[in-house]
Amino acid sequence: MRYRGLAALISVLCLSTSAAIAQEGDAAAGETVFKKCAVCHIADSDKNKVGPSLNHVFGRTAGTHPNFAYSSAMKAAGTAGLVWDDATLRDYLHDPKLKVKGTKMVFVGLKDDGEITNLIAYLKQFSK
Question: Which of 6, 36, 76, 121 is deepest in the core (most CB within 10 A)?
Fold first, then answer.
């Protein structure tokens, strides 16, 4: 009887560990997803391209990366309190024009939640 309880406890621990890993995403898979973004953005250095650098994006107020000409909509979103974190990036990556109406980002968004989770894991590497 005691062994069944121990086996059940081990099963629960293993399942919750794999659920946590799934929520954190796979940075290597996110690197592949980032190829869709790399035309306009860079994450591994602090240089702007057509879009702003995504280096250290987590915790950054929207529309504030130096030397980038943001849309007035993105600046207003930042002034209104939009700060990039897991939840706000997830919403933005899913539908940029819905999250920040008037953004000049032309990307239509990612519809696959797994891709978004992996992309966020990839970007987090460059925000430490």
Answer: 121
